[in-house]
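During the no-cost extension, the postdoctoral fellow (Dr. R.K.) reprocessed legacy sequence entries with the updated structure-token encoder. One reprocessed record is reproduced below for audit purposes.
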Amino acid sequence: MSIFNELLGNVSIPKFVKVRQKFPRPKIENIEKETTKELIQKNLLNNIKKGDRIAITAGSRGIANIDRIIKEIARNIKEVGGQPFIVPAMGSHGGANAEGQIKVLNSMGITEEFCGAPIKSSMEVVKIGETEDSLPVYIDKYANEADGIVVINRIKPHVGFRGPYESGLVKMITIGLGKQKGAEVCHHQGFGKMAENLPKIASVIIEKKNIVFAIGLLENAYDETYKIIAMEKEQILNLEPQLQKESKRMLPKVYFDKFDILVLDEIGKNITGTGMDTNIIGRYHTPYASGGPKIKKIVVLDLTNESHGNANGIGLSDFTTKRFFDKMRFDQTYPNSITSTVQETIKIPMVLDNDKLAIQGAIKTSNLENELDAKIVRIKNTLDMEYIYISEKLIEEAKQNPNLEIIGVLTPPNFNEYGNLF
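Re-encoded structure tokens follow.
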């Protein structure tokens, strides 16, 4: 028996019940049809001439239907005589190397075979100008050589700062297309200047490069596409702040303002930049964002395979498992942190042998008079929030909330022979 079993093995874990959280659920039923309709109704394909080489951006986030949307855009470009290709646009992600960025895309279903367009990946960039305050502006070399660029991204709140432009088209233009070098420029002055620097740098690229059109995507709380908005490049800076406000209203959440422990089955770069959405967990790695529930301890059990070992975000938790730690790759995790200049998200919390000990550790250190009174919420990840598990002490509060429906019966958590949850 390990010392950890001696210290924690007798800690009582309360029973749990399954709960359904209810959120607004507008949804696009036919992704391909809606994508094409936007392009045709707004005459955006008229911006492409026969033979034009068109670069389509593809980021590292797990955006709903992104593979299908890219495929449909590529098909439309080919129909008007263009030659589409895909450019990984993800700053320093994928280990800050060309091969790693292709692997990230492939893991999300964005392959040459499926999308019907080649992927051209390089970390080489070209400086195309400077901002008014002398910040250099970089762009991916393949995108720079193209006759036109199509920018695609989901629009949503950022995990580390607040401003009119957070995660969206402007960030994709500035940091995504800027690759590691462009991301470094934007992060160099810290997250306190991010809201200011993003549109400054993006404005130069919008002015100098032929962005034939942009596609903004909005998702509901169920990780489903509910709006596809195509726009001319001149509309990007005006439309994105409005769309960002709308996206904030659609964010999923945990319908408890204060509890003891949050258990996440997994975190990952395919879920959000910090592995778990800071807006949902109420913990931030910078002083430039706030909000969310008050939680004493956070437990992370596993890392998604799609993260390829990038464990960014684990530093926001208090406990994790040996299983998670063994998947963590420093060569994938650290480049992101070095580029962003923020180390809080990659610090390693207490690592325990299995799920049971990690949860027991969180209960033990929560300073509770009665361990069975621990208020615990368990979620799969911060994208998949419809069904959650809550401990017995939260049931009465759940019954008072019309957005919560108790759909199971109280049962002890099921651990396998290795101490991990089923």
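DSSP finds 15 helices and 15 strands in the chain. The longest strand covers residues 211-219. The remaining legacy entries will be reprocessed before the final report is submitted.
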